[in-house]
Specification:
single chain, mainly beta, Immunoglobulin-like, Pectate Lyase C-like, 18-stranded parallel β-sheet, six-stranded antiparallel β-sheet, 4 helices, elongated
């Protein structure tokens, strides 16, 4: 069998996608995708990291979180996530080991276009904001963001409310964090962003014995507001799958699932308004049954799960693509499959029991066994799909093509379900192609072939076994969503195009099937399976880390509102002369500082000059505080009471001694505060040193040097608080 295996550098694609306005740093490529964008550049000699900023055209630049800025050896890459549709620009600046910009090494892109996701399908019917994102693509208010790599899946931390009184605890490990949310007290929007490949051995634990990783709500249809997404084009999980149970508002997008334990993704029991899209599904591990050579199911939906959308996914030679419903389902449930690429997969596209399902604009590309199967009173509308070299596009159990050869049928004798078909294309028909419409047989048909999209199926047409009639859900405005299908002839181009099925840029793994062989072959492709097992991402690491997340706390933990306030490098003096900064409202109170980081209100408190602060900046690997001063000044950092912190200032560790306060004298220039260990910062200030404060040398009454508050004002009778005395910090 001929094959063509290519591991591509995913940041390098066609020149048409390039949009570059570089100054000195060489930007290779910049392009928008779906509510995200990326930029790649040539590494600069002597650069230790890169500051990457993104802005809407005409707006303010915002610095990207550190884990989004990655090293691929031959190139650097950064991805901006959570963008509204529109035009954006990137600015990339090379930084030296001290965190200073390398002079002249900056590049800026020309405007690039970001598109919105396609929200067609039942998941979005009468429901807004699935997962951690608003429908416009931006993070929901107060959303938390976790960055997870192979090195941090065990050590990532997050605060989770576990009691009705709102008390939060810190949990460590990705599965442990999700298990804690199962208590049902914390529905804070949570975006889990995966960087690179995460293997089964990288995980802290698994809570599902069948699939591995589990997202589970407290009760049926529990509000979760969770998005699990990949960063860039090379995010993948390997050696395990994902189980959803009792979940409402969960989104899975933009990653690959390789060699899963049982099902790649199982939507199992009482889930609703979940959305699975732009996933690459590969082989699972070989099971014990004869039909599990390629794994069990790729994407199963059952247990009365309802209002689901599965869209823009790519299934690579998968065996049993999608089971939709078990024998115990009780309702119509309403499921949508659209714009999926069934790339030489075998069967179950989907295989439906009882449920009401819309299958439209999918690309059935070399399907060896059958396409859509309807059983047990189900209702399926198969609309404007492109079937290329598909043996049996549609089957109804115990009638038509299912039993044409005199066998017992594909579906083990189950009662039939009804299929309405309209606008489909059947191309490159195989020698075994078979499709019987109601126009050929009024009783033993594979589908009712409608002449118009809005045609209703008469009740006179029913299944031979079970007597099921079609419920005409697709023409009922009370049940159906609004959508605009593509013409079937255009589906292959749409599904395989830039914004089509699978991961961003179609992922970093490519395989070219040999249609002359693979169209009819449903055995395991041994070379493809080996390539999946041998796959390695070209990711070297996150800039500033030795590897992709080797830090104990590489992931931001509390909020995804990483406010990058302008200032820092721009001005040596705040407009109002006030250098004090706190984090009330989970954002910096002073735009003088350029701050990237995550915030929390459950990390203790600190009192400064009689004011108690309860909201803090979490000092993590992604945290950066930058500013520029025009004279010698004393920096004061106030951390949580009861801690003895340390910090890096301009790359050098600075330790507190016996209190929760750090002070350091800084010379004029640009400075950066970063993590040494994880602590929680409540207050920042800068005051002139003793030589810079205009004052009498001695107090007229006491003969002692004067005291000044953290704003540089004289305090005649200092009481409790923090003061500057003889150019040093003192605590009374």
């Amino acid at each position: 069998m001929r094959k063509n295996l290519l591991f591509k550098l995913c940041g390098i694609v066609v020149a048409m996608m390039m949009s570059v306005q570089s100054f000195s740093l060489t930007i290779n490529e910049a392009a928008g995708w779906l509510e995200s964008a990326y930029v790649t550049w040539t590494p600069v000699e002597g650069a230790a990291s890169y500051r990457v900023m993104c802005r809407p055209v005409g707006g303010e630049y915002v610095r990207l979180d550190a884990p989004l800025v990655r090293d691929y050896g031959a190139y650097g890459r950064a991805d901006a996530l959570g963008l509204k549709a529109g035009e954006y620009q990137f600015e990339v600046t090379a930084m030296d080991a001290g965190g200073n910009a390398i002079q002249g090494e900056t590049g800026e892109t020309a405007p690039i276009v970001v598109r919105a996701h396609d929200h067609g399908g039942f998941a979005h019917l009468n429901y807004k904001g699935i997962g951690a994102y608003n429908d416009d693509g931006t993070l929901k208010s107060g959303a938390k963001v976790l960055y997870v790599t192979s090195a941090t899946a065990k050590t990532v931390t997050c605060d989770v409310v576990t009691k009705s009184n709102g008390v939060a605890q810190t949990f460590t490990g990705l599965q442990a964090i999700l298990d804690a949310r199962q208590k049902g007290y914390d529905t804070t929007p949570l975006a889990i962003r995966m960087v690179g490949t995460i293997e089964a051995a990288d995980m802290d634990k698994f809570s599902s014995s069948a699939e591995g990783f589990q997202l589970k709500g407290k009760n049926a249809h529990a509000e979760m507001n969770i998005t699990l997404e990949g960063v860039g084009c090379d995010a993948a999980i390997r050696g395990f799958g994902i189980l959803l149970r009792n979940c409402k508002s969960v989104e899975l997008r933009n990653f690959a699932v390789m060699l899963c334990m049982d099902d790649c993704i199982s939507i199992d029991t009482d889930n609703s308004h979940c959305w699975v899209h732009h996933i690459d599904f590969f082989y699972g591990q070989t099971g014990g049954d004869s039909d599990q050579a390629k794994g069990d199911g790729s994407l199963d939906c059952k247990g009365d799960s309802k209002y689901m959308t599965f869209s823009y996914n790519r299934f690579w030679d998968c065996g049993k693509m999608a089971l939709c419903g078990m024998t115990g389902e009780s309702g119509e449930n309403f499921i949508t499959y659209h714009h999926n690429w069934f790339d030489h997969s075998d069967s179950r596209h989907p295989r439906v029991r009882t449920m009401t399902v819309h299958v439209y604009n999918n690309y059935f590309d070399g399907v060896a066994k059958y396409g859509v199967g309807a059983t047990m009173g189900s209702n399926v509308f198969v609309e404007s799909n492109y079937f290329r070299h598909v043996n049996k596009p549609m089957l109804i159990s115990k009638q038509g093509s299912d039993v044409a050869d005199g066998g017992k049928g594909t579906f083990s004798g189950e009662d039939g379900g009804m299929i309405k078909a309209y606008g489909n294309v059947y191309a490159e028909k195989s020698a075994n192609f078979r499709l019987v419409t109601h126009k050929e047989s009024a009783t033993a048909f594979d589908c009712y072939e409608a002449d118009t999209r809005d045609e209703q199926v008469p009740a006179t047409y029913k299944t031979l076994q079970g007597g099921t009639t079609y419920n005409n859900f697709d023409t009922d405005p009370d049940k159906m969503y609004t959508y605009t299908p593509d013409e079937a002839d255009n589906v292959p181009a749409v599904v395989t195009g830039q914004y089509g099925a699978g991961r961003m840029q179609h992922g970093d793994f490519q395989w070219t099937f040999n249609n002359s062989v693979d169209d009819a072959d449903y055995e395991v492709n041994a070379e493809l399976k080996k390539a999946i097992a041998d796959y390695e991402s070209s990711l070297v690491g996150i800039y500033g880390n030795a590897s992709a997340g080797d830090d104990e706390n590489d992931a931001p933990g509390d909020t995804g509102n990483t406010d990058d306030e302008p200032g820092g490098d721009a001005s040596a003096v705040p407009d109002d002369g006030n250098y004090a900064c706190h984090f009330t409202g989970r954002k910096p109170s002073n735009s003088f500082y350029t701050i990237v980081g995550n915030y929390s209100d459950s990390k203790g408190q600190a009192t400064v000059d009689g004011t108690t602060y309860t909201e803090c900046l979490k000092i993590e690997s992604s945290t950066s505080i930058r500013f520029t001063i025009g004279q010698e000044m004393v920096l004061t950092l106030v951390f949580a009471e009861g801690t003895v912190p340390n910090i890096k200032i301009d790359g050098t560790r600075v330790n507190a001694t016996d209190s929760h306060i750090i002070t350091q004298t800084l010379q004029a220039g640009t400075h950066e505060i970063t993590k040494d260990r994880s602590f929680n910062l409540f207050y920042i200030n800068l005051t002139p040193t003793a030589s810079a404060i205009t004052r009498r040398p001695m107090d007229a009454l006491g003969g002692k040097a004067l005291y000044y508050d953290l704003q540089g004002r004289r305090v005649p009778n200092p009481t409790h608080g923090i003061y500057i005395h003889r150019g040093k910090k003192v605590v009374k």
